[in-house]
Every structure is written in structure tokens, then in C-alpha cells.
Amino acid sequence: QHRPFKVTFSPEKMASSSSSSSLAAAVAAAKAEAVVEKESYRGIWIPCALDEASLKNMEKEGLLVAGDWRSGSGETVPNPQEGEQVHFGTHLDRGLSFPPSEFFSEVIDHYGVQLHNLPPNSLLEMSAYAALCEGFLGIRPSLLLFRFYFHVRRNSITAGVPYITGTISFSLRRDRAYPKISASDSVKQWPATFFYHRDIPAPGKATALPAFVNGAATAKPSWDEAAPALTDDLILAKRRIEYLIKHNGLKGSDLVQCWVSRRIQPLQYHGDRLMHSITSSKTDSLRISPKAYTTQGYISQIKWLIKERIERRIPEVSLDMHTAENPVVPVGFYHHIFLCFNLRVILQY
């Protein structure tokens, strides 16, 4: 197997029952034979190190479906066949399964990027945001609210030469009260986890993702846009987020653990269901697998995603998301009741 690059973490510590072990092993495949510094590979393609065995392990974990994927192991640059999309193991592990959610498609379209133009930690931010909206606020993820909290950061090899892989990333705007994530920095060689996935669009969509075109994303006005004004409902959502942080201790790691522990892919299409509707049933359709993580497997997965101080115990959750057994009152619910009541009173007179 080709071994093109260095790594900055130890995959041997990953639990074999977790999909993170396969990805860590793939990203670490070049550890022994690296001949250049890892910085030399930033923003460009790296020969694929995610082999068929690793993908089969991810299939066993429920992240992939048999017959929907194909390994690109050893290939230097992706070359998908007709009807295929380029996917990444690191992006799969950070909440994106096919078919993609409406929110994910809106983000891709708005910023004019392809999947390889977004680094793994931006996918993690999007998944955490989707979890915040669906699991804690009881609403569908709003692109407008996402743009209010996040702005685009351009990533360049040198001045005027943008990254091909990871052209842009999403960063939290200044002076925003938001549960910030401390994302793992152990995924710098993520382009080596590319593989091919059958194109599976959501209902009403022609394709799951834009057709693959190798290259950096072209700059768009949306990359430099100012924070938008919020609608009344989204102002209420903003206020609830601030309340949850101040009075309930909501933190960024809660927005990751809530879906990892329940085996949910936040950026996958789930029809009319939102994350807060999940039941305690192991066979709930929101779950990618009825199998629960082992203690060590869960700890390894969280360490793979975020910088959480973890020893040999399950990391603490400050505030968990709502579920079918702990229903949420959606943001704007009482606001709409108030408006409807006032309208009825007005009409009576």
C-alpha cells in the first residue's frame, strides 16, 4: 500500500470496534515511509490510503451500505465513474451520509463548493449546528441562521493560490454567543480518505452532490457576505441558544456527543423527521445501526472528533438534546400561538 505522508496521532490507540480506527489507520498508513513534512500536502490531493478492508469495517458499523461504495485505494486523484460521487471517510465520520440533508445541499449550493472543497472540521461544525437546531431548538436547520453565526475563511497555499482540497472553511463570527467546538486537529491528511459512493439523491433532487470537478472552488460573493438580518423566529432561536448556554450550560461537545452516542448522521436526509423525534428503540430509523458503541469505542470516536479531555471514562454531557421521551417545545411555537390569538381577537372586532 502506498504510504505518502506523516501523521500526528497514534491510530494504535483507537478501538477496533469504532469506525474511527479504520480512518485513523488509513490516515496513518504512510507514517513509516514519509519523506517530506506534512505541511507540503496541505490543500492538495494525497494518494488514497482508505482500503477496502477499512471501508468494509465502516459498512459493519452502519456508516455504509453494501454495494453503494467502491475503494479508491492507491489512486492519486479521484476519478469517479458515471453515477458515482467522491466521498471521504473523514466526512462520513463527521455526519454526512447519502442522501444528503436539505440543509447540507443548501450550504453546498449557496457557497458554490464541492465536497472536497470543505475540510472535515467544517463538516463537524455543520453537523453540530444541525444537531443544535433539530435536537435542542426543535426546528429545521436554517441556512440564514448558519450564515449569521459563521463566515467563510479562505485557505491558500500561497497568496492567490487556493487549496484544492479544503478551499474554504467555516469559522464562528466574532462576538457570537454560540456553543463553540474544539475540533480535533488530527485530520490534516484527510484527502487520503477519499472513496467512491453511488450517487443517491434525496427525493426531488437530480443528484446528491454536484458532479465532481477536480480543482479549487471559484470565489463567490457569498464568501464575503456580512451577517444577515434575522427573521422574528430566528431571533427567538438566537435567544434560546443564549439561554441554553447561560442557564443550562450547553457547550460545543454536547452538540457532537448527542448524535454520536445515538448513531445519527445529522447531515443525512431523514424525510420529515428531526433529531428530537428519535425514540429509545434500537431500530429507530434515525439510527444508522442498532449497535451501541462499546465504552472504549465511544471514547475513541469522541477523541477522533473533538479535543475533549478524556481518560478512561465516558465524557460528561452538560446538556443532552431532546428526544421523543423528553419532548421539545419548538422555537417560535408560543410566538405563533400568540400571533394567531391576536389575529382572532382583531377579526372579532
List the keywords.
disordered N terminus; three-stranded antiparallel beta sheet; 10 helices; alpha+beta
3D architecture notes:
With 349 residues, the chain is α+β, with helices and mostly antiparallel strands. 31% of the residues lie in helices and 8% in strands. The protein contains ten helices and seven strands. A three-stranded antiparallel sheet has the order 1-7-2. A two-stranded antiparallel sheet has the order 3-6. A hairpin with a 2-residue loop joins strand 4 (156-158) and strand 5 (161-162). The chain is globular and about 50 Å long.
Mean pLDDT: 86
Percentage of residues in helical conformation: 25-40%
Shape, please? globular
Which strand order spans the largest sheet, edge to edge or round the barrel? Answer: 1-7-2
Q: How many β-strand stretches?
A: 7
Low-pLDDT runs of 5+ residues are: 1-17, 30-38, 336-343
Can you describe this structure in just a few lines?
The chain contains ten helices and seven strands. By secondary structure, the protein is α+β, with helices and mostly antiparallel strands.
Itemize the secondary structure elements and their pairings:
Blueprint (H helix, E strand, L loop, with lengths): L18 H9 L24 H9 L8 E3 L12 E5 H4 L9 H10 L8 H18 L5 H7 E5 L1 E3 L2 E2 L5 E5 L21 E5 L33 H17 L5 H7 L34 H11 L27 H16 L1
Antiparallel strand pairs: 1-7, 2-7, 3-6, 4-5
Helix pairs in contact: 1-2, 1-9, 5-8
